[in-house]
Design brief:
Growth Hormone, Chain: A; single chain; mainly alpha; membrane
Length: 401
């Protein structure tokens, strides 16, 4: 494959990651406003956020088979348009202050994000293999950079009291336009064409067998802790700042932006560290930094110290998810099935964990509830060795144990 095609696909993949991050952060940065509009407690908001997880958990296990059948570009489009439809429903629901309609919209949003995420990671892993160097963290830096812009936009719109309905409506237009054009630049869909010739039963069998592989499941556990760390910050760092430190909603959105900025910076430069020191040492450092930053944020007596904790927390959360995706895709013949499995495990934590923290926050405040994440981070640290790159002899579909 010529270098121009690969370079074009890398740019398109980066853009798709960035748009994904922008969309998610545009929602996450204004969760305090949504909570106010719908007049919900932290626990009730947690239950509402759980509907995103429901949609994604339905979509994620099927995403590998969908990619195998229709290719990454079509799967990204399907996910993007589904997420846009969900956003439109949420926009209408918030204008009416309707909790049930908001929940329905978030289910569609979760389905779309799930399909979109798996497909973009499979495309990113394919581009990484063709380039011959670590670039997955930079794609996730694109996600984080998009999330940073989304968070800043959310903070600005919150400060000037722009309605959530208008905000989300604009996002729907952006996503729909991007899905029409950007995925056209992805790598050629030869693997998908071959899968269609083999028929749906072959791709479904591969997806099922990936759930029985010890290494794949352990990599999923590594990603679980990293994903919960990132997801909890996305959903709750703004509200924890508002409730725990008496800050304004705009200041809470800025704290979220600080976290995302730190994560983006470390993802952008992280590939060179992985190539220099190896995947496993960088994972140990990342998860350790996330643990330290989380504790510092929760115990912080003021905004300055909390901001420092958010910086360290973001730096630590930066590398776990992208390295997990690369580990799952080490064998290109099994990449779609394994990325689907690891993404499912990670997104269960990313999307379902934060709402559960909301229930805990009803009893001990959301700020102190964040300390529960430390348990998952420690579990991930213990399973880091599973993410070692596969030797060439274990490629071509061999099951690692």
């Amino acid at each position: 494959m010529n270098q121009q095609t690969v370079s074009r696909a890398a740019i398109a993949t980066f853009a798709i990651f960035a748009i994904n991050g922008f969309v998610f952060a545009s929602w996450a940065a204004r969760i305090p406003a949504v909570t106010r509009i719908l007049d919900l407690s932290a626990g009730e908001m947690g239950m509402l956020l759980l509907t995103i997880a429901v949609g994604s958990v339905v979509a994620l296990p099927l995403a590998g088979s969908v990619v195998a059948r229709i290719g990454t570009s079509r799967t990204v489009r399907t996910g993007g348009f589904t997420a846009a439809a969900g956003g439109l429903l949420v926009s209408i629901a918030l204008a009416q202050a309707s909790v049930p309609l908001t929940a329905l919209g978030l289910v569609f949003f979760g389905v779309g994000i799930g399909l979109w995420d798996v497909a973009q990671n499979i495309e990113g892993a394919a581009v990484e293999r063709h380039l011959g160097r670590t670039i997955m963290p930079q794609f996730h830096a694109g996600f984080s950079g998009g999330a940073l812009i989304g968070a800043l936009v959310g903070a600005g719109l919150s400060a000037v009291n722009v309605s959530m309905s208008l905000h989300l409506g604009a996002i729907v237009v952006l996503v729909s336009a991007a899905m029409l054009f950007v995925p056209r630049l992805f790598l050629p869909e030869a693997p998908a064409a071959q899968a269609r010739k083999q028929g749906p039963q072959a791709s479904l069998a591969k997806s099922r067998s990936a759930w029985t592989e010890k290494r794949t499941l352990l990599v999923g556990l590594v990603v679980l802790g990293a994903a919960l760390t990132e997801g909890a910050a996305n959903d709750w760092i703004a509200k924890a700042t508002v409730d725990g430190l008496g800050a304004t909603e705009a200041a809470g959105a800025v704290m979220f932006a600080v976290f995302v900025a730190s994560m983006t910076l470390f993802r952008f430069f992280g590939g060179s560290f992985i190539d220099s020191y190896g995947r496993v040492p960088v994972l140990y450092f990342s998860l350790g930094a996330a643990l330290a930053g989380l504790i510092l944020f929760v115990l912080a007596p003021n905004m300055v110290v909390a901001g420092l904790g958010a910086v360290l927390w973001g730096a630590g959360a930066a590398m776990g998810f992208p390295m997990g995706m690369s580990a799952a895709a080490d064998d290109p013949a099994r990449a779609a099935a394994r990325v689907s499995v690891v993404s499912t495990i990670g997104y269960v934590a990313f999307l379902a964990g934060p709402p559960l923290l909301g229930f805990l926050g009803d009893h001990i405040t959301i700020r102190w509830a964040l300390l529960a994440i430390a348990v998952a981070i420690v579990a991930s640290i213990l399973t880091v060795p599973a993410a070692r790159p596969l030797p060439a002899s274990e490629h071509l579909g061999a099951t690692a144990t």
